[in-house]
Amino acid sequence: xxxxxxDKKAIVAEVNETxxxxxxxxxxxxxxxxxxxxxxxxxxxxxxxxxxxxxxxxLAKRALEGTDYxxxxxxxxxxxxxxFSMEDPGAAARLFKDFAKENSKFEVKALAVxxxxxxxxxxxxxxxxxxxxxxxxxxxxxxxxxxxxxAQTMNEVPGKLVRTLAAVKDxxxxx
Length: 175
Prior knowledge:
Number of helices: 6
Strand order of the largest sheet: 2-3-1-4-5
Strand content: 15-25%
Distance between the termini: 104 Å
Order of helices and strands: HEHEHEHEEHH
Mean pLDDT: 82
CATH topology of the largest domain: Alpha-Beta Plaits
Largest sheet: 5 strands, antiparallel
C-alpha cells in the first residue's frame, strides 16, 4: 500500500528527531523472525530505552541526512530494523546481541556511534560498554582507592608502635 506524501514527511521528521537525540544506532535484518519474537523484542526495547523503527531505506536516508548517522547510508540495503539507543550507548547493541543468540534469522548489519560506522563484527565492543550506573560506580571506586590506602597507611603507624611496645614488654617480662 502506498504511503501518502504527508505521511512520508512525518516519518522522515520523526526518525530525524530520534536520530539527532540518539547516542548510538544499530541496524539489523529481521527477515524470518516470528511476530511473537518481534513483539518480545519491542517490549524489551521499551524497558531498556531503545527506540525501534522499521523504515523504508529511501525514507531512512532522508531522515538521517545531517545527523551523526548519515554514515550508515551505504549499509541500507534490504529490510532494515533501526535500534536507536536513547539513554545508554550500548543498550541497543546488548539488546540485539541477546536477541540474535535466540533467533538465528536475526542478523545485525551495522552500527554507528558518534558519526563513526562500525561493522557488525564490532557489536561486542559496543555491547560491552558499561551502563551509566556501572561507569559511575567504577569511577567512584577509582576515586576512593587512594583515600582508602592513605587511611590504612595512617592507621598502620600507631598499630605498629603498639605491637612493638607489646613485644618489648613481653621480652622484658620473659627476662
